[in-house]
């Protein structure tokens, strides 16, 4: 790892940059997969008494506004030259964290569906700004050779916290949990930004040094670039489509799994710590393995491994429901396999887009990759999953459809891989 070299050289600015990036991104992802994806559904359906259809509509609004805001702001950052302006990106990140912290505090007290919609619009705009502002920090803080390992650390921390510490999926409990994390984080980031803006502190000197990293080869252009033009290219759009598919299918299945007591009572919502800790540790181990795979495997082999395990996971849950439809699962085999699949593709999401970018294009490319393949796919499929439940689609039929999509995606990867091999 490059990090060991910086530690031996006592290069504290770069070392601190690793910690800042991992902490910020891990908390942000933890916030999205728990408070936003699970908490808002609980707020709408249990607290406000909204129908599943109404909640699905509002989640679709969240996805579309976040996606549009991220794409627009990512393009705006590129036009203004902010993609290579570290201090500006830190200021934007702080503004996003402040808004999200306030929104998190007021969320449990939302009185009506109309107010919830207003909350969602403000949250979507903040998230849309946060995607290009934070993901583009990669070129300033993380060397190219360590991006897989750093993505692994982010994934491990985020999913470990999500599995172990968020056993109660209710808006009030999730709000309290997030505020205990976001409050100190917001204050720490505010101190960094204020000192960096003062120009008279060691923090300002560190930020000034880090602001020049994108000019170095080890930080600048991504490892998957074949040229440095501003056009993303067909390969980039192909990976956007693949990641959209995996995020969409995963959320479509997971939202139904966690709404089925027999599938979660002995796992993610176990009253005892041991099952949740086991799942959390599975996330950690798999994320670390995924970091190594990302660093050393070719793109095609990497995706075939990831999509193969992903398809196996959904096949396992289909068999579980088909063979034992009414039994509460005491085995952690299926949840652990699920944690493995999720950690593998999440590592890709944190590392892939920067490696298709130059310092000038990273804000736009990360906005496209994260907003389209992550946010839009996740929350559109959340809305679809809720609609299927509203239409009383049986659990077995729901998971069978998800499994079919996962198998088709994997087979498509194999066919494309063979085609490219023959072309060579």
What would you note in describing this structure?
- By secondary structure, the chain is mostly helical.
- It has a single domain (2-423), classed as MFS general substrate transporter like domains (Growth Hormone, Chain: A, Up-down Bundle), CATH 1.20.1250.
- Helix content is 78%, strand content 0%.
- The chain has 16 helices and no strands.
- The protein has helices at 2-8, 12-47, 52-80, 86-106, 113-135, 138-141, 147-165, 171-198, 202-210, 234-257, 261-264, 273-296, 299-323, 333-351, 362-390, 395-423.
- Helix 8 (171-198) crosses helix 9 (202-210).
- The longest helix is centred in the N-terminal third of the chain and has 36 residues, at 12-47.
- Residues 418-424 have low confidence and may be disordered.
What fraction strand? under 5%
| Oligomer category | single chain
Radius of gyration (CA) equals 21 Å
- CATH class descriptor name: Mainly Alpha
CATH architecture: Up-down Bundle
Enter the CATH topology name. Growth Hormone, Chain: A
As for the number of domains, it is 1
Proportion of helical residues: over 70%
Order of helices and strands: HHHHHHHHHHHHHHHH
According to DSSP, the number of beta strands is 0
Q: Span from first to last CA?
A: 32 Å
Which regions have little confidence, pLDDT < 50, spanning 5+ residues? 418-424
Largest sheet, if any? none
**CATH homologous superfamily placement:** MFS general substrate transporter like domains
The number of distinct helices, counting runs of at least 4 residues, comes to 16
Q: Briefly note the structural class of the backbone.
A: mainly alpha
Shape: globular
């Amino acid at each position: 790892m490059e990090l060991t070299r910086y530690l031996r050289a006592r290069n504290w600015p770069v070392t601190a940059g690793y910690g800042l990036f991992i902490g910020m991104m891990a908390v942000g992802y933890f916030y999205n997969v728990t408070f936003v994806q699970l908490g808002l559904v609980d707020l709408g359906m249990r607290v406000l008494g909204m129908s599943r259809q109404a909640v699905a509509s509002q989640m679709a609004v969240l996805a579309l506004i976040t996606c549009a805001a991220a794409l627009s702001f990512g393009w705006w950052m590129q036009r203004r030259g902010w993609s290579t302006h570290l201090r500006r990106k830190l200021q934007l990140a702080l503004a996003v964290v402040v808004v999200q912290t306030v929104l998190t505090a007021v969320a449990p007290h939302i009185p009506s569906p109309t107010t919830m919609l207003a909350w969602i619009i403000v949250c979507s705009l903040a998230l849309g700004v946060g995607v290009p502002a934070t993901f583009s920090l990669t070129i300033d803080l993380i060397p190219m050779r360590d991006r897989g390992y750093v993505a692994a650390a982010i994934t491990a921390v985020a999913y470990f916290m999500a599995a172990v510490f968020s056993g109660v999926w209710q808006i009030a409990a999730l709000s309290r949990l997030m505020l205990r994390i976001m409050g100190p984080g917001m204050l720490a980031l505010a101190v960094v930004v204020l000192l960096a803006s003062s120009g008279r502190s060691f923090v300002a000197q560190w930020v000034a040094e880090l602001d020049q990293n994108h000019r170095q080869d080890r930080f600048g252009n991504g490892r998957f670039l074949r040229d440095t033009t501003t056009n993303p290219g067909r390969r980039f759009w192909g990976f956007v489509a693949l990641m959209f598919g995996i995020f969409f299918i995963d959320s479509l299945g997971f939202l139904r799994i966690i709404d089925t007591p027999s599938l979660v009572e002995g796992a993610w919502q176990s009253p005892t710590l041991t099952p949740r800790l086991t799942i959390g540790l599975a996330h950690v181990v798999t994320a670390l393995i995924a970091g190594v795979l990302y660093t050393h495997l070719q793109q095609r082999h990497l995706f075939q491994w990831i999509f193969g395990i992903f398809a196996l996971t959904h096949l396992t849950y289909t068999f579980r429901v088909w063979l034992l439809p009414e039994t509460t699962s005491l085995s952690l085999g299926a949840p652990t396999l699920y944690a493995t699949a999720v950690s593998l593709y999440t590592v890709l999401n944190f590392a892939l887009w920067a490696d298709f970018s130059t310092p000038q294009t990273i804000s736009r490319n990360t906005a496209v990759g994260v907003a389209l393949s992550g946010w839009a796919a996740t929350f559109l499929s959340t809305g679809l999953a809720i609609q299927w439940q509203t239409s009383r689609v049986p659990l077995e039929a729901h998971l069978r459809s998800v499994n079919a999509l996962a198998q088709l995606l994997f087979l498509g990867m194999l066919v494309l891989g063979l085609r490219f091999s023959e072309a060579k």
